[in-house]
Write a structure and sequence with these properties.
By secondary structure, this protein is an alpha+beta fold. 18% of the residues lie in helices and 34% in strands. The protein has 7 helices and 10 strands. A 10-stranded antiparallel sheet has the order 1-3-4-5-2-7-10-9-8-6. A hairpin with a 3-residue loop joins strand 3 and strand 4. The longest helix is centred in the last third of the chain and has 16 residues.
């Protein structure tokens, strides 16, 4: 069996040093569309974007944690764990949960510990939960859980795992914004470390069941968090405490994201869809918890 759940869960955690610079942070921010705001009259000179792009004012959007250190993201590195042998073309990123323990510095060195926290049997698929805990000399920085969906690898009678589905948000959203995905967005975003050919190679994308390369789910994840921070949190990245989403559908470069936000006490509920495909769901069950 390609996935040996007991062996995978019993494997020793992997620990290594990661580091990042202001250039890495700036490249990530550019990869999620920072530097240009389509809802501004003169986006090229929007001073609010300088907190993401100018090193002397740099604030780190918490979703940078998903690429910090330029290592393979959970959706890739989880496939090299003991007891896991699956084809990359069968793999999709199912969801992401990020807990921020304190603001991420614009440059730093830290220790990252990776382990497989859970393996769930969904019948026709398996879900791997890869947990990454990161700390520097001053203590914990963040905890990342990547849910990796592997088609055709379930059915061994294992634990199905908890349901992550939430009740649909009630009422009209408090804010709705749209964000255009540039035609080269995936090519730029992959420079932050996710080299999966699904996001660049048309032939590989076809083998994986898509008409053409798709945008990284974590790129949509970052674009969405930036929209929430800029729109409802006063541009203050330090207010984000946690951020959870389920990847409900794909995004193709060139499309427009419609991001709907509902204010709650201490949190923002978010739903994201593709404008050009009749509001087809992209991110669902999405919650940003904040101070």
């Amino acid at each position: 069996m390609p996935i040996d759940a007991s062996r995978a869960l019993a494997a020793e955690p992997r620990t290594g040093e990661i580091s990042w610079t202001t250039k890495d942070v700036q490249l990530y921010h550019l990869g999620i569309g920072a530097g240009a705001r389509p809802d501004k009259d003169d986006p090229a000179t929007d001073p609010d974007e300088l907190r993401y792009t100018l090193e002397s004012r740099l604030h780190v959007l918490p979703s940078f944690a998903t690429v910090a250190g330029s290592g393979a993201p959970g959706v890739i590195s989880g496939l090299s764990m003991p007891g896991v042998e699956v084809e990359l073309a069968k793999v999709l990123h199912g969801g992401q949960t990020l807990e921020i323990h304190r603001p991420i510095p614009a440059e730093g060195t830290a220790t990252a510990t990776h382990r497989l926290a859970a393996v769930y049997d969904k019948g026709k698929a398996a879900i791997l939960v890869l947990r990454t805990e990161v700390a520097d000399a001053d203590g914990p920085l963040w905890t990342n859980d990547a849910q990796i969906f592997v088609r055709g690898e379930g059915g061994w009678g294992g634990d199905r795992g908890p349901s992550t589905r939430l009740e649909p948000p009630a009422g009209e959203p408090d804010r709705t914004v749209e964000r255009l995905i540039r035609a080269d967005q995936a090519l730029l975003y992959r420079l932050s470390g996710d080299w999966n050919p699904l996001h660049a190679d048309p032939e590989f994308a076809k083998r994986a069941g898509f008409d053409r390369p798709i945008l990284h789910g974590l790129c949509t994840y970052g674009i969405t968090l930036k929209a929430v921070v800029d729109t409802l949190l006063g541009g203050d990245v330090s207010r984000v405490r946690s951020y959870t989403t389920r990847f409900a559908g794909v995004v193709y470069p060139g499309e427009t994201l419609r991001i709907r936000m509902w204010r709650r006490e201490g949190s923002v509920r978010v739903e994201v869809s593709s404008v050009e495909r009749g509001d087809a769901p992209v991110l669902a069950d999405t919650v940003v918890e904040h101070s």
